[in-house]
Amino acid sequence: MIRGKQIYEGKAKKLFETDDPELVIVSYKDDATAFNGQKKGTIEAKGEINNRMSNLLMKMLEEKGIRTHFVRELNSSETLVKKLSIIPLEVIVRNITAGSFSSRFGVEEGIVFDSPTIEFSYKNDALGDPLINSYHVAALKLATSEEIAAVKDTAFRVNSELKSFWAERGVTLVDFKLEFGRLADGTVVLADEISPDTCRLWASATKKKLDKDRFRRDLSGVAEAYREIMSRLERSRS
Ligand code: ADP
Ligand code: UDP
Prior knowledge:
Elements: E1 3-9, E2 13-18, E3 23-28, E4 31-34, E5 39-42, H1 46-63, E6 70-75, E7 78-82, E8 85-86, E9 89-96, H2 99-105, E10 112-122, E11 131-132, H3 134-139, H4 145-167, E12 171-182, E13 188-191, E14 199-203, H5 213-216, H6 222-235
Antiparallel strand pairs: 1-2, 2-3, 3-7, 4-5, 6-7, 8-12, 9-10, 9-12, 10-11, 12-13, 12-14
């Protein structure tokens, strides 16, 4: 697979063209940002960990019948994926209160919901990724109501698969962000990444944060936490 010109550089990844117009290469960086880019830094080996973890999780989801953009891992930090037209939404599923849910509604972190919640943010850095509801999504023609229904259904299925996957490894899935996109034929599939950058993952026994919240909140041991969550995932595969 020939790596062509760079099409995009985001905060955590770069995208490259390939010789196949339907495929792109995602290249993961060690760069980390938080608070809409206001806090910047790097996390040692993050690119490789996120690449590998996201690929393993997407493969697991494919085996459960959930369609994703994943094609093939090319090397430790690069993966071949299907080129999608991204639906500009951050789809956030929560099992436990944390982060912006806690601050927005004035509730402490760590309260377990009876059933998961879902919310959308409009992916727009200039506007600060504002919350948006299904009616706004349809009104702005960001997605059709059929697509929104498919996105919600898939997001909850992803949640139940990821929740049990991590529970088997002694990890609690608190919340996470997904993105979706359309293939050329209009089929909506799971895109982007599933990693400690995009999920809150707590060690079940100690509630230790094993995700990007360590970076956001200036906690110690950021790179160690990324390595620990990856080793928990790898260890239980053998
Ligand atoms: P950001 O754009 O928020 O800074 P990243 O650095 O993670 O985020 O950049 C990756 C970009 O690639 C995101 O904008 C994401 O929506 C987009 N993307 C993810 N998967 C695909 C795909 N399969 N096809 C096209 N674009 C994708
Ligand atoms: N998230 C993400 N990208 C974003 C915003 C949130 O991956 O731009 C993830 C975040 O890692 C967490 C979940 O979505 O797992 C919910 O985040 P929240 O809304 O609580 O926002 P935050 O506290 O990160 O501002």
